[in-house]
Amino acid sequence: MALLRSAATVAGYTMLSRVLGFVRDVLIAAVLGAGDVADAFFVAFRLPNLFRRLAAEGAFAAAFVPLFSRHLETDGRAAARAFAEQTLAVLLTSLLLFTILAEIAMPWLMHVIAFGFVEEAGKFDLAVQFARLSFPYLLFMALVALLGGVLNSLYRFAAAAAAPVVLNVVLITALLGFADAGATPGHALAWGVAAAGAGQFVWLVVACHRAGMRLRLPRPRLTPNIRRLMRLMAPLGLTAGVLQINLLVGTVIATLQDGAVSYLYYADRVYQLPLGVVGIAIGTALLPTLSRKLRGGAPRAALDSQARALEFSLLLTLPAAAALMVIAGPIVSVLFERGAFGPAAADATAAALVAFAFGLPAYVLVKVLSPGFFAREDATTPLRVSVVAVLTNIVLSLALFWPLGHVGIALATALAAWLHAALFWLILKRRGFLEIDERLRSRLPRMAIASAVMAAALWLIAWALDAPLAAAIGPRIAALAALVVAGFAVFAVSAQLIGAASLRELGAMLRRSE
User: Fold this and answer.
1) For residue 475, with 0-12 CB atoms within 10 Å meaning exposed, 13-18 middle and 19 or more buried, which class applies?
2) Residue-wise pLDDT tens digits, 337-363
3) Where would you tag: which of 139, 279, 416, 457 has the fewest CB atoms within 10 A of its CB?
4) In DSSP terms, which residues pair with 341 in a beta bridge?
5) What is the C-alpha to C-alpha distance for residues 197 and 202, in angstroms, rounded to an integer?
6) In whole numbers, what is the pLDDT of the chain averaged over residues?
7) pLDDT in tens, 277-312
């Protein structure tokens, strides 16, 4: 299975999901703006997302996929299915208990993650209500992570990549059809989050059945295989946990500034598009690819896959970061500035987006480099590096918030991500698990030059289009579309002319099936 073709499959569905996510966020911005209900909902949604990324997409996926791949390669599909069924039983039981406890303890949990709301009783009570309604999302998403890991290990990436589309469709439906049904539109969104989790679970159950992996639900038992999974998950859980502390620390500090939680959320949504389409897509495809190549006794092929993943991801990420920094204002204005979301909120969000975009290549590098550890079942090294990164983020967030406000939080996140990526790179290189071949070494500086040329062109074109970019929504959309098309064209031509990329080679890699 070609790595880039697999990544392209994930990226395509991720792009669809993110486009629908923008539609969802445009509606949220128009209906909720950046006020108390929006802040309460975003903080509440952060809680199940925190545990989802820790228990499901973080520790669980990184531990489960290599072990499931090993069973596939060495013992066959029947043994792999039995391992998945054992995992399903233990995961479901433990998370049911955790969800019940979290629902009971929600007011105390909210005191921790939103202490800035405590003095505002109405906002705090809304955050507790929204969190209780949306928290079952965690349970369903943990099961989705299991089923997605099974499918990805079988090189069936489409269904799991398409699952987030369900979340956005459900939330859009909640806003359009049920915004006035509850006390606030935030209540409709919170109910929608829980319903979307259930919908994604059903979607992947059907996909697993079609792939010949019909998982039964046996009695939960701590078998040797499950104990091995838990031993891997312990340090991986801490790794995922300290990574999510970066987001949590930012949210906690942002509650001290009116509107800051919302500004950071909207900015985060914009840079998450290239991060998801490039970094998460390639990382998702790379982990099972590396795991199965290493288990199959092909370390040289694994090194080549890692190098090509780095080349392809940076080819797309460097120009995306440059573009987001240069035209952050027009992007935010076109996407969000309407209804309750005014010019002041757009300016504040754009400033945060510039800071986040500075770290975009680093966020992607972390996603692409981490499978180099996880595929080798090394959970300790990523934990140590993540602790360093999160401590750096905490210190920088506290130091930069006072002079820069919410922009300081975004900048701290970016700087910590660069440290994280640099440490991953150096450790893998030193251990011989990362090979920067001549092709990659030659093309990296050329990618940077092509991105700089594109950024300069975008700045000049944005200056020329200043009037339509400040006009009504129609001219603004047309002007932003012109900027995007021009930026893409300039980068594509520059990259070809200076040798940063070869369309012929990219086409061959995408067509390759083995």
Assistant:
1) middle
2) 777 777 888 889 999 999 999 998 998
3) 457
4) 338
5) 9
6) 82
7) 666 666 666 666 676 677 666 777 777 777 878 888
**Residue at 71: amino acid letter:** H
| Cα 46 → chain centroid | 13
- Longest pairwise C-alpha distance within the chain: 67
Alpha-carbon gap, residue 160 to 10, rounded angstroms: 8
Distance CA 125, CA 402 (A): 27
In sequence order, what are the residues at sequence separation of 6 or more whose Cβ sits closer than 8 angstroms to the Cβ of residue 318? 361, 447, 448, 451
- Beta-carbon contacts of 74 under 8 Å, excluding residues fewer than 6 positions away, are 295
Percent of the chain exceeding pLDDT 90 equals 20
Distance of CA 57 to the CA centre of its chain: 10
Residue with tokens 């639900």: 217
pLDDT tens figures, 118-153: 666 677 888 888 889 988 888 888 888 889 888 888
CB within 8 Å of 173: residues ≥ 6 apart: 192
In sequence order, the 6+-apart residues with CB closer than 8 A to the CB of 32 are 38, 41, 185, 186, 340
CA pair distance 374, 239, nearest whole angstrom: 11
Spatial separation of the C-alpha atoms in residues 387 and 379, rounded to whole Å: 13
| Tokens 């598009």, residue located | 273
Residue 218 lies in domain: 3-511
| Number of structural domains in the chain | 1
Report whether pLDDT(450) > 90. Answer: yes
Which pLDDT tens digit goes with each residue over 166-221? 888 998 998 888 877 777 888 888 898 899 889 999 999 999 988 888 888 888 88
CB 246 within 8 Å of CB 416: yes
In contact, 329 and 18? CB cutoff 8 Å:
no
| Residue 320 predicted with pLDDT over 70 | yes
Whole-angstrom distance, CA of residue 344 vs CA of residue 331:
14
pTM (predicted TM-score): 0.69
Question: In a 3-state reduction of DSSP, which class is residue 286?
Answer: helix
DSSP state of 135: T
Report the alpha-carbon distance of residue 365 to residue 280 in Å, rounded. Answer: 10
**Helices (H), strands (E): how many in the chain?**
23, 0
Cα-Cα-Cα-Cα torsion 244, 247, 248, 251, nearest 10 degrees, comes to -170
Return the H-helix or E-strand segment holding 94: helix 77-104
Residue 393: which of 236, 238, 248, 239 has the closest Cα?
248
Tokens representing residue 279 in the block: 């970094």
* Phi/psi at 212 (5° precision): 80, 20
Residue 513 neighbours by CB under 8 Å, 6+ apart: 1, 2, 5
CB 32 within 8 A of CB 265: no
CA 193 to chain CA centroid, nearest Å: 17
d(CA 246, CA 405): 16
